[in-house]
Amino acid sequence: MKKIGYAQLIDLLDLQVRPLTQTALMSSAINKRQDTTDGTILFPAGVVITDTPLGQLEFALRHEGVNLEVIDAAFEKIAPALLIARIRANPNSEPIRRACFLWEWMRGATLDAGCVPTGRYVDLFPSKSYAVAANPIKAPAFRVNNNALGNPDFCPVVKRSTIAHADNMLALFRQLPDLMAGDDSAALYARAVRFLYLSETRSSFSIEREIPDANREERFVELLSRAGEQERVTEDWLVMLQNAVIKDSYGKEPSYRTKQNWLEDSTGRMTFLPPRPEDLGKLMRGWTTFVNDHRSGIDLSIKTACAAFGFVYLHPFMDGNGRLHRFMINHVLQRSGQLPEGLVLPVSASIAKDELTYLDVLSGFSKPVTRLWRYRRTDQAPLIDSSPGARPYRYFEADREVAFLQKMIQATILTEIPNELRYLRGYDAAFAELDATFDLPRSTISKLIRMIHGNDGVLSATKRKQFAHFPEAVIDQIERIVRGSFPEDAQPLNRGKPP
After folding, report:
1. CA 340 remoteness from chain centre
2. Closest among 135, 148, 53, 32 to 101, alpha carbons compared
3. The pTM is what?
4. Would you state the CATH architecture of domain 162-417?
5. Domain boundaries, given as residue ranges, for the chain
């Protein structure tokens, strides 16, 4: 079977791009298109196609969707004159109109085709297959509706199958005010919000295998409390955030990084090379434009995932990118106005419980991108022989990222937050009864509750030694009170002292 479309275009032009998730093949054994389960799309041998790079591109745009990375790489080797000649010959062809628009959009230049299509406007991304901007921009030169999620310098792509539950996500956000209010007092709500800040802080640091001291923890809590306040994301603001989350004063940066950085595993094997410093400025301008654009009408969970994961893929600082990437989740959610004001979602707590999937999502991007680099290891920084440039960071398919974040937000709203509220109610009930029953310092009561509840309702033998002066019957009664105060599923997000 012969490759066609994007796969053939890659072979014809020897394009250095990431592997395709689907490969189109021509088969004489079928008479209509077949989408298989092994990542191939079969087309009958009689399908009309011109076996030239431009012909393969037109076929791909018509039948395979929009692969911005391959298209951008192909435009470096397809002469603009060929595009001009083709649209002059067939000005109302939808694939060539979209191709010509993309050439100008990606390159910031004009083709001067000398003709104007007369057909109806055509969507750049077919809305039946892709998540798109709800408010597209009309491009009259080729009568194309630009409904891309992003801009020429940063444009993630998301297939519609990923957002099958987008309406459910919106309904989840709408549950939050009632969930946080319940039948409790405003004081409990305030305490719960405060503890959610602590939970997000501790979980975010734990993912990085760090235990922050009290000062760093408090600084990050303060940052989270201000998520969403900044109207426009800027380099100066991101630098301020980076300086606030870094422990090492030598790691605080005055701007986006000016050196190449990389990630490696415990064996010293290179696991990720982010974009070159010379490409970073333009990429970050594209990213900030994407984050600051509140008019395009992108689904909130999609925008949040693309913004947060896009940030960590661009890796604009030498250190602190992971924590800022997770901070951006709450910033974008807060800026949307769809969350109760001041409420942080402890998404990092959910991520920490599903860390292997999280790492799989990250490596799903980092591994194929890093394979495009040519480098030599040294005792210091790697010696770069060649790089893929900005392209794979500029255009990436964010299906996995969106699906994962939707799952984490759902777990946070449906499980983590209700669990935390139940824990606080149980803690308060246990504290009130113990305080009324025994003449004990408040700090001792609090410690006993945490120890007993954190050990499945009993005080461990080791901990009992701390209270050897208590009669056994008193310890037994305290355990019964604590067990009776908490629902069976009331587990705190973090086992610190409740606020």
Report:
1. 21
2. 148
3. 0.89
4. Orthogonal Bundle (1.10)
5. 1-78, 162-417, 419-485
